[in-house]
Amino acid sequence: MNKPIGILGGMGPQATVDAMNKIIKNTKANCDQDHIPVITVCIPDIPDRTKSILNKNDKPLEKMVEYLRILENANVGCIIIPCNTAHFWFDRLQESTHTKMISIVESAIQYIKNSNIQEVCILATTATISTQLYQKEFVNNKINFTIPSSFFQNLIMESIYKYKAGEYAKAKEIMNSIIKNYTLKDDKKFLLACTEIPLILEDWIKIHPDLFIDATDLLIKNAINWYQYKHC
Question: Would you say 121 and 146 are in contact if contact means Cβ atoms under 8 Å apart?
């Protein structure tokens, strides 16, 4: 058995559980022993990533580095972070550890580059949008994209925070109202670039799976591929 996949989670807890579920669902296994070993650190006291970025401080970084050490000490083979906004610190986190880290942003970009997708609408936290985590890579790779208006962006953040607070029905109601304002086209996809959004939009995804790109799912598939074929 190869070294486990390490998950630096807690941002938020539901998204961490979703990532773990996606590892199981995307792994071909006939019995318990065929599944991929995973070690998860889900300590939710990491400061709010969006608030820290908008307030121009690095408060989450210290905690994330601290919890990376737990995964290092557990001798994991690679580390993933099921939080898009936390990838603002991805390079600094990778510099702080010798353990291979797999980027959710890079996973999404590579998938979109290799797909016949004409345009991507980014649904993410305000911090992910404001730091242009995805936009810069889209420009570099000549991928057409749009971002929500400031009005809709505020609603997206409200929906995300409602979900984190356990107000699931309200979170879905808000996000549903946003999606309904877009013209749905087969060659235009929504990039779900916040790990809570696939959970909020789960009903939409079941009905229109081809309209959505789940960044979490792509990260997980890359981690599984690394574990199965590139492990060293």
Answer: yes
